[in-house]
């Protein structure tokens, strides 16, 4: 492939994330959008209105022969579309979660390796300078860790409609949990050994076997423990909806959220405001030696800028032939933990990994 030639990309799925990724491709001269795919006719940003919207991914792959297929559809179609794209000779970007079962996720990774193509998964926090800093500071503290994380969203109107659509296939602790479990796994290199989960259906508007509030606990081989909580819907409380906190014997590192932030604002999900570093060390008098250090994260990228960074990474991965083995393995590992939590919710039993 001529490295100067734009990567021809087909964008499948035009929900919130799909449109954001499409804008990232549109605005990056390294890409050329050859088509968009959506089953219905979506309301598109002015920049995207000039592109043809196809109805079927498989047909568009065959007709357009893109270099890259960007998959931003509902979770239950990710694996089938990704494997088809690899078989059609494409690189693949796929939104998280990679699949809805571990076996399907492993099939996608195997297909990428067989095809000799790049597979990048939409872990947006991996491209966020503040989250990179949080992980770096936590790793300096050293294990064992306590991870305390949540992202609850009090949603109504169109946001609640989106959440209900997502819950046709995926619970909140899987859909959102893969992000934050991935952060835990980047901080501790230890293997997860046991997962526990609990959940509750708080709305008659979702299927009887689905739950819109969930909580998972994960135990790691090095003694680290963590929890993640996610709830979606009009009944969800905005009190303490955003907790991102890591503790170890040497201290703690935390994200301190703007007290006026709203849980259904998509930029709130990634903006960190302040990272606070607390050191546990005390002097002869038993008092702390140094005060907490607040690192202000000024000039943070917003949601669209983060999508731009993700696709710049995708471009680099293709052009510079980056090794994505760890990236793919981590995506499967975080999915395995979150799906084990979902199994635990449904069976009432802990799951040994």
UniProtKB/TrEMBL annotation:
InterPro entries per UniProt: Gfo/Idh/MocA-like_OxRdtase_N, Gfo/Idh/MocA_Oxidoreductases, GFO_IDH_MocA-like_dom, NAD(P)-bd_dom_sf
Residues annotated as signal peptide: none
All residue ranges annotated as the GFO/IDH/MocA-like oxidoreductase domain in the record: 137-232
Chain ranges of the Gfo/Idh/MocA-like oxidoreductase N-terminal domain: 7-123
Coiled coil: none
GO MF entry, a single one: nucleotide binding
Protein name in UniProt: Gfo/Idh/MocA family oxidoreductase
Organism: Rhizobium lentis
């Amino acid at each position: 492939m001529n490295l100067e030639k734009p990567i021809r990309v087909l964008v499948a799925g035009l929900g919130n994330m799909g449109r954001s990724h499409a804008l990232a491709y549109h605005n990056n001269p390294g890409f050329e959008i050859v088509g968009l795919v959506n089953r219905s006719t979506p309301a598109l940003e002015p920049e995207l209105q000039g592109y043809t919207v196809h109805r079927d991914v498989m047909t568009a792959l065959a007709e357009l022969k893109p270099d890259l297929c960007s998959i931003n559809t509902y979770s239950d179609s990710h694996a089938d579309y990704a494997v088809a794209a690899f078989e059609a000779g494409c690189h693949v970007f796929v939104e998280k979660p990679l699949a809805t079962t571990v076996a399907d996720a492993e099939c996608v990774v195997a297909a990428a390796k067989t095809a000799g193509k790049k597979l990048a998964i939409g872990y947006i926090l991996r491209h966020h300078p503040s989250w990179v800093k949080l992980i770096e500071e936590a790793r300096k503290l050293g294990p064992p860790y306590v991870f305390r994380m949540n992202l609850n969203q009090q949603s109504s109107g169109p946001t609640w409609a989106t959440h209900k659509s997502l819950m046709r296939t995926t619970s909140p602790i899987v859909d959102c949990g893969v992000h934050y479990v991935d952060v835990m796994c980047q901080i501790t290199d230890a293997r997860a050994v046991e997962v526990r989960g609990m959940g509750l259906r708080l709305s008659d508007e979702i299927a009887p076997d689905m739950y819109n509030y969930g909580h998972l606990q994960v135990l790691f081989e090095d003694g680290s423990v963590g929890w993640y909580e996610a709830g979606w819907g009009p009944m969800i409380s905005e009190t303490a909806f955003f907790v991102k906190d890591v503790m170890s014997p040497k201290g703690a590192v935390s994200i301190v959220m703007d007290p006026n932030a709203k849980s259904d604002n998509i930029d709130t999900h990634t903006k960190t405001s302040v990272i606070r570093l607390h050191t546990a060390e005390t002097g002869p008098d038993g008092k702390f030696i140094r005060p907490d250090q607040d690192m202000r994260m000024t000039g943070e990228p917003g949601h669209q800028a983060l999508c731009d960074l993700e696709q710049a990474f995708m471009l680099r991965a293709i052009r510079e032939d980056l090794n994505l083995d760890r990236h793919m393995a981590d995506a499967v590992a975080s999915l395995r933990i979150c799906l084990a939590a979902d199994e635990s919710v449904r069976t009432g039993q802990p799951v040994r990994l």
